[in-house]
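re: ur question from yesterday

yeah so i grabbed the chain u mentioned. its 276 aa long if i counted rite. heres the sequnce exactly as i have it in my notes:
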Amino acid sequence: MEFLKALLKILDTKMEIPTSYGWFHLTFFFLSVASGVLLCFIPKMREGKAVRKFVLLTSVICILLEVYKQINFCTSYSGETVTFTLLYYSLPFQFCSIPMYAGLLSGIFRKGRVNESLLAFLATYSVFGGLCVMFYPTQVFIDTVGINIQTMFCHGAMITMGIYLFGTGTVKAEHKTILKAIPVFVSAIVIAMILNEIVYYAGVPEGDSFNMFYISRHYDSTLPVYSLVHAALPYPLALIVYILVFTLAAYVILPVAMGISRLIRATVKRKIKNTI
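ran it thru and got these structure tokens back, copy pasting raw so excuse formatting
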């Protein structure tokens, strides 16, 4: 019991809430981009097995950090008493949670259409989600050191993996890549909708909510901009708008990736040629 309490106190170490574009935020933002680019220039890390292992390892780390987050959020201690309270709103099946599952599954489904779809999702939708948080992190920072590290690492890793996958050519920077990614996104949407219905009718404690992807028809959405759409349109139409807008945003990643990946590959080729 003493060890558990000591561990909980360490995990709950406090800090001043980081500010948007402060040193804490910008450090992780820089590292997420720089590490993705750097990986593309390491010859051994450009090999297929290395890419798969990196994505898998990154996903496992994100899952472990998510477990820590749930422990931190759901567990409290007072004197000798340790209590666990399940917080439905924080359960990990939001849009930005999917990359850690997709990365894990990509290590299981090594080759074939499923693997290609998972990696395409990580290079498009996932990058969009990571960029949204990294450009507008206001709502993700709290006064707990570990949670701030967890959110910055996991969202930064989404950007890192995208750069890495495109830069190594593992995911092709071409328009049709979005078609491979859409099934993963839609599947996640369907699962979220099913979970939202099951948990709602099973009973959610008063004062709490279970709203995965923030698309539940039983609660108001809190997503910026989409909350207005959710309130103004019938639920089916609002859901269609959600899917289309997210898909368009994910697709916009591709033209940018096309230019960047060409630049990285050309630079790598020149570097390899100069060393021969």
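noticed a couple things. The beta strands are 75-78, 81-84. also Residues 235-275 form the longest helix (41 residues).
anyway ttyl
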